[in-house]
Each structure stands twice: as C-alpha cells, then as structure tokens.
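Researcher: Quick test of sequence recovery. Tokens follow.
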C-alpha cells in the first residue's frame, strides 16, 4: 500500500472564480430570505450563531485579534466584527479571487488581508492572534489517499510524517486509511504557536445520525476520510478524533460536537416534511434537505487554553 496526494492548491490559485455553486453552510445562511434560516430555532446568519456559541465558551468579546484562514466570501468575519467591534481581523487566503470578495464584504471594518498559504505563515506571526478560525476549510488541505502500489514522490514527502504523528500524539492509522495530513500539520502549527483559542470545522468521517422518523437522513460513521468530488477539485472529510488527541496532548481544553450544537434545528412542519419525503419536491426543499444533512455531517472542534476557557 502507498499514498497519492490530494491537494486543492491549483484549483484555488487558478481555477476558482466563484463560490456561488458551492453551498457552504455559511453561504447558505447568509441571505436574509434563505429557506435554511427557517430550519433553525433562531433565524439568523451562521456568523451570528457562531458568535453566540464562541462567546459562551471563550468570552469572544474579550479577545482582541482574530485570524481567519480561507474566509470564503468574508460573511462569517463580517458578522463577528459587527457583533464584536473591538476585534481586529486578519484574513489569510491562497485564493486571490476570494480575498477580493473578502475585501468587499469587510469594507469599513478593521481588517488586514494576506494573500498567502497558511503553511507559510511563520509561527512567530501566529502567536500574535488570540483566536484562529478555520471554518469549512480543513477538507481543502492536503490529504494522503491510500492506493495500491508505491507512494508518489509528492505523497511520500508527506507520508514521512505519519510515524511522527503516531509517536507524538498516540495516533494509529490503518494502512488502507486516508489521512488528513494537512489538517494534522495545520493544527500542530497552531498548537506549537500557543494560539489561545482555535476553532475548526468540516465534514466529519466520524459523525452519525439515526432517527426512525427520518430514515432518509440516517448514516453511520465510516471512520475513514471520504472523498467529496466538487467542481474542479476534490476534498476529503476529516477524522476529528485525531485532531482532538493532538489538541489534548498540547494541554488545550476541548469542546467537540455536531453542528447542531451551534445551529439547533427547529422541527417545524416545513422541516419535518423535507426530512420525511423520499425525494425533494422543489428546489427549496432540495436546498433544505442538503442543509439539514450537512448539519448532521459536520463537526466542530473548539480549543481553549486555560486562561481563555470557562470553568
């Protein structure tokens, strides 16, 4: 067994022109008339929900500096800066197209924009931030895809680190398992930099959902990062248990859970109808079903050093 390397760098640098076709949870909730807002207990944007969740856990309004990696259209940061105006934001993105979108969304706010690869930001620079956010971007980082035969030279350079991760953080990877090597390296860099608060989220390969009332939404965890084919590139789901072990090894207080902790669902008539139907009956219902599925499929990981966390 060997590995092939999946990366999205070329797509984000040269192929991406818009996120309009990609229904991220943040984008899905941004329009005030979004049908997805009506599926939640409180009708609000993703950024508003995340603000209240983070403020409860880590006193977000007491923090001064925040770095967002891969901030998409800038909608999440716009909400955070609106609700916590004392925050000074830095947006780092490999995509020149998305960085321009973020500049438009955050016009008038205190924000700095860096067109750079996260892995090239020095640890000394990362230490300047109270909070680092990687929302719906971990799946874009390099992933080692298990293949029959030898590893490609590019993959072999990443695979050389597997033994280090297993030894340093008590991790175990099956030879046939896909490995989120980029997500592991990203979190290790943030932990080594001693960033007080870290928020991560992505599709999880360890999430599950079982409800007899909504059989079409039920799924079991695979435990192995799964390929998600998208326009012009592929991403992978994330094994959050490996990231959690690493964070605990660095002494962080860990909050981990499904996205329904942040975005609680309102099981009103429209939501239950969308969940029960064998196939969507309209475009709005199809959007709603995908949104609800993602709520169950996503996980978050919030890490806080002792001074920042509650309790």
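Model:
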């Amino acid at each position: 067994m060997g590995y092939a390397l999946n990366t999205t760098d070329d797509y984000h640098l040269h192929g991406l022109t818009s996120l309009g076709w990609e229904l991220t949870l943040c984008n899905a909730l941004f329009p005030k008339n979004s049908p997805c807002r009506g599926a939640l207990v409180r009708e609000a944007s993703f950024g508003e929900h995340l603000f209240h969740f983070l403020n409860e856990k880590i006193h977000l309004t007491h923090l001064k500096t925040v770095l967002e990696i891969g901030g998409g259209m800038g909608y999440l940061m716009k909400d955070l800066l609106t609700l916590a105006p004392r925050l000074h934001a830095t947006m780092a993105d490999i995509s020149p197209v998305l960085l321009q979108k973020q500049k438009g969304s955050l016009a008038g706010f205190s924000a700095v924009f860096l067109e750079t690869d996260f892995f090239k930001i020095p640890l000394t620079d990362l230490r300047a931030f109270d909070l680092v956010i990687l929302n719906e971007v971990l799946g874009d980082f390099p992933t080692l895809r298990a293949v029959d035969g030898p590893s490609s030279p590019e993959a072999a350079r990443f695979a050389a680190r597997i033994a280090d991760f297993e030894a340093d953080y008590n991790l175990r990877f099956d030879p046939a398992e896909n490995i989120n090597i980029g997500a592991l390296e990203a979190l290790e860099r943030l932990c080594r930099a001693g960033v007080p608060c870290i928020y991560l989220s992505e599709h999880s390969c360890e999430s599950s959902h079982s409800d007899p009332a909504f059989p079409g939404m039920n799924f079991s965890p695979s435990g192995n990062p799964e390929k998600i084919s998208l326009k012009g590139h592929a991403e992978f789901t994330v094994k959050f248990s490996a990231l959690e072990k690493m964070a605990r090894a660095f002494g962080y207080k860990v909050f981990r859970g499904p996205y329904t902790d942040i975005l609680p669902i309102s099981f009103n008539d429209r939501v239950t109808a969308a969940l029960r139907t064998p196939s969507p009956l309209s475009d709005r219902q199809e959007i709603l079903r995908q949104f609800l599925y993602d709520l169950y499929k996503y996980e978050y990981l919030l890490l806080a050093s002792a001074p920042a966390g509650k309790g």
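The domain at 2-304 is CATH 3.40.50.150 (Rossmann fold).
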